[in-house]
Amino acid sequence: MTAPFSSAVVVAVSVGAAHQFSKQVQKSIRLLAGLGVEGDTHLGITVQHRSRVAKDPTQPNLRQVHLIHEELLDELNAGGFGVAPGTIGENVLTRGIKLLELPRGARLHIGTTAIVEVTGLRDPCRQLDVYRPGLMAAVLSRDAYGNLVRKAGIMGTVLSTGSVQAGDLIRVELPPVPHQHLERV
Questions:
Q1: Quick one: which of 38, 87, 152, 158 has the fewest CB in 10 Å?
Q2: Strands (DSSP E) along 52-131, which ranges?
């Protein structure tokens, strides 16, 4: 089943070769099947995020690619946070797609050959407040039932290798129903 997101597009792509908060915007990035973003510190079959490596370095890397919707940056900038592409560590900045509403297992066909499978929500960390005090609270909220809502983007794994650049279209392929809501990974 394919979901219609005719205006879903890549706005910017970024990579970070070291464990740092922000990533550098690039003209293009290469997604490698089963590994992640070429040249990025989070590239690998097993988990690369320091906090998760400390718990269990053998667990699978469900955080190979970090995607954020540009609409979040618009919201944060309206609040005075001064956030630019790559600033809060995303690899792919999108527009026109409600990333947080995608189900687990949705596949994002990006550009001509890259495919990313959505694994879950990014769990925002305290580094956000080191960058700008109050930023972590700004990417968290509560729904009408009091449940915590994480707005800091989604994570995924690379199913098909391909280059991704600003302007690439994104096509969403939904998994079979019933859909599973995203949880933090």
A1: 38
A2: 65-69, 92-95, 107-110, 114-121
- Nearest of 123, 119, 73 to residue 93 by alpha carbon: 73
Q: What is the pLDDT of residue 4?
A: 46
**21, 84 in Cβ contact below 8 A?**
no
Distance between CA atoms of residues 140 and 142, nearest Å: 7
CA–CA separation, 164 and 148 (whole Å): 32
Question: Residues 49, 60: contact at Cβ < 8 Å?
Answer: no
Helix extents (H) in 15-111: 50-55, 70-78
Helix ranges, the chain (H): 50-55, 70-78, 127-131, 135-138
Q: pTM for the complete prediction? A: 0.94
> Cis peptide before 124, with omega less than 30 degrees from 0?
no
Q: Are strands 140-142 and 36-37 parallel, antiparallel or unpaired?
A: unpaired
User: What residue type is assigned to position 162 of the chain?
Assistant: G
Mean pLDDT of 12-19: 95
